[in-house]
Amino acid sequence: MAETIPAPAAEPARAGRRRSTSRAALERVALELFDRDGFEHTTVDDIAAAAGIGRRTFFRYYASKNDAVWGEFDLEALRARLEAHGPQVPMMDAIRAAVLDFNRIGPEEEPRHRRRMELILRVPALQAHSTLKYAEWRSVVEGFAARRTGEPPGSLLPRLIGSAVLGACIAAYEQWLADDGADLQELLDRALRELAAGFDRPDPGAPPPPAAGDRPRA
Amino acid sequence: MAETIPAPAAEPARAGRRRSTSRAALERVALELFDRDGFEHTTVDDIAAAAGIGRRTFFRYYASKNDAVWGEFDLEALRARLEAHGPQVPMMDAIRAAVLDFNRIGPEEEPRHRRRMELILRVPALQAHSTLKYAEWRSVVEGFAARRTGEPPGSLLPRLIGSAVLGACIAAYEQWLADDGADLQELLDRALRELAAGFDRPDPGAPPPPAAGDRPRA
DNA sequence: TACCATAATGGCACCGAGTGCCGAAAGGAA
DNA sequence: TTCCTTTCGGCACTCGGTGCCATTATGGTA
């Protein structure tokens, strides 16, 4: 999740009419309107008008109204971060480090990111759409897990790890949104550690397990 | 997931025009058309026409075209099954048993269930919509986990468990669909056991962990 | 049997997202 | 200028979904 594409990558100067706006600019306009009037009550016409473009043009920048909420993800970066650690680093540690890094956002970006994630996690239409947006994200994690576990990609364990890691991130984000002062990095870290350790822990006030480890506290 | 509502619960005989169809009948008609023509290429008009009702009436039975694919879930049953085991049964064992039980389907139901899940997991619009449909399902698991862990509902760990368990089920279902002969119960069982045990297992060919347990094999 | 309250039906008009088509605008290069 | 390329944006259309309301079917009651 997170990790917006850095730069427009300076174009060399092509022929033809110049683009009259940019995805980033449209996203800003859209988020402002969503914030002010709510996602459902903002029509694509509203956004286009506010951005000074035609409605038809909006759909050349974003495939749907939903998509305008998402920044662009640089999945290559996630993949690179996963592979950054050698095979001596345990799989879940590598995943945790990569995910934390991927979700690191500067303090000045935080308010916008918060609003964006509030929309994504609370507006039903966006909540639903997120499944599609995160499919690739999940498959990156899945691919890494496949390599590390030695299982073929597409088999149960890697898929499970991909799904579960995504679930953990969503749970962490939900917690983050619920508490204004919360630290996203810490929440992600906790969630992913819990996931790595497994949920087979004794209930409060139950007999101790056969092998005592150093499980993180809940 | 799964577990359709059993009976229409014999009505006492009220005044007024009788319903001209039923949710179940509409679902059958819709699934047939989706199967034949594909989900996107089937319009609500098509379904209504095939069912011999007006388009407007269709939306009185299902809130959306998407919803026609889902059977109705009896979440009360899931909740009951979770609580069926006493507190001496470990949390993840109780969850596993309840989920397996909830997803038990008779052999005659299997083909229909398979087609249904194929649609849900493969058609993008339905895949997206599923997030909303399973929100309540997840919150049932989350509530149980909250009680068992002693954490307040809505806090990180129970949420994480809800998300992760759902993720595990989805991974199992995907495997099930990918292989015609696969046994759903066994896949769910494996996925949930892996999840319970955690993913902090040694990579193939790495040094043994400090405490050797009886982790399930991958 | 006539009437009435009730509940479901379905047509109609409308909104908004998304798409195919195509001519017009804008800019670089010959 | 002329030509080529690219983007723009209007128009018309499809489809999902909703509010409104007259119509129809049904059971109960006078």
Please write out the topology.
The structure is a homodimer of 218-residue chains.
Chain A: H1 23-37, H2 44-51, H3 55-61, H4 75-83, H5 91-102, H6 110-122, H7 124-133, H8 135-149, H9 156-178, H10 184-197
Helix pairs in contact in A: 1-2, 2-3, 4-5, 4-8, 5-10, 6-7, 6-9, 8-9, 9-10
The structure holds a DNA duplex (30 and 30 nucleotides).
Mean pLDDT across all amino acids of chain A: 89
Task: Tell me the CATH topology of the largest domain in chain A.
Answer: Tetracycline Repressor, domain 2
The number of strands of chain A is: 0
Output the radius of gyration of chain A: 20 Å
CATH architecture of the largest domain in chain A: Orthogonal Bundle
> What ranges of chain A have pLDDT less than 50 throughout 5 or more consecutive residues?
206-218
Give the H and E element order of chain A. HHHHHHHHHH
Core attributes:
homodimer; 218 residues; mainly alpha; Arc Repressor Mutant, subunit A; Tetracycline Repressor, domain 2; globular; disordered C terminus; DNA-binding
